[in-house]
Amino acid sequence: MAGIKWVLASDIDGTLVGHGGESALVNFLNERPEIGLVYLTGRTRANAEMLLDSYQFPHPLALATDIGADIFWGPSLRVDETWAFQQRREWSPRRIMRALEQVDGAFFQARCSYWRIAYGMRDLDALAHARAQLVRQGIPCRTLWDEEQRRMDVVPRNALKGKALKYILSRLSIRPQQCFVAGDGENDCDLLSGRYRGVVVANGVLPFKEHLPSQIIRSPLEGAQGVLDGLRHFLDEPRVLQAEFAG
């Protein structure tokens, strides 16, 4: 933590990787050791590590996986047992699976991880019935709908990137003003809700981009290039403000 002045808290898929420019962003971050990294992803820890290592991204201060259900502290990626306990108190995969067995048109696909259960949906009526069934059963959880794959994922109620980031910054004694966030999709909504300055990259979902607060930059560049574009704006602003004040 010594020497850390700023934190880049970013989604991985579609934001840091997948649209080119990864090497330029990695080089920039390696040249700026005062920027700490927090990665937030829907991936599991093993998948996230493998992807980040393949592009040689710097080791993070923290890694939040499964949309924020688990938090690991870097560089050794030690699990945060306090955070995991809070998630486990309400998480009941067996109750979820029993409840959804009763929904016509909902088909179990996989336990993608301990924190994520995937169901295929015959149609939108089945989706509505599945969600209503979980509410009727009083099961605390969230559902994520993938229209392209016609898949509903069930995750813990508090598995949110924004909540995980708030916890991480509090533990690190980092102020919100020191944090810059980056994302590309609806899973990043609470991350880009307005508590922090940030950027949404050009390949982000259009309906998502239309409802962003003013302090979120809409970069014309995709992926890592968009993150780098936004990050440079963020880091330049303090110097601009200082120059204006001095003048």
Attribute tags:
single chain, 247 residues, alpha/beta, Rossmann fold, 2 domains, four-stranded antiparallel β-sheet, 12 strands, disordered C terminus
Question: Which helices and strands appear, and what pairs or packs with what?
Answer:
Elements (H helix, E strand, L loop, with lengths): L5 E5 L11 H9 L4 E6 L4 H10 L7 E4 L4 E4 L4 E2 L1 H8 L4 H8 L5 E8 L2 E6 L2 H13 L4 E6 L4 E6 L4 H12 L6 E5 L13 E4 L5 H4 L6 E3 L4 H24 L1
Parallel strand pairs: 1-2, 1-10, 2-3, 10-11, 11-12
Antiparallel strand pairs: 3-4, 4-5, 6-7, 7-9, 8-9
CA-based gyration radius: 19 Å
Shape: globular
Unreliable stretches: 239-247
Lateral arrangement of strands in the main beta sheet: 5-4-3-2-1-10-11-12
Query: What value does the average pLDDT take?
Result: 91
Question: What name is given to the CATH topology of the largest domain?
Answer: Rossmann fold
Helix content range: 25-40%
Q: Strand share of the residues?
A: 15-25%
Query: Major β-sheet, in short?
Result: 8 strands, mixed
Total domains:
2
Q: How many alpha or pi helices?
A: 8
Order of helices and strands: EHEHEEEHHEEHEEHEEHEH
- Provide the CATH top-level class of the largest domain: Alpha Beta
CATH architecture group name of the largest domain: 3-Layer(aba) Sandwich
Structural class: alpha/beta
CATH homologous superfamily classification of the largest domain: HAD superfamily/HAD-like
Count of strand segments: 12
User: End-to-end distance, in Å?
Assistant: 33 Å
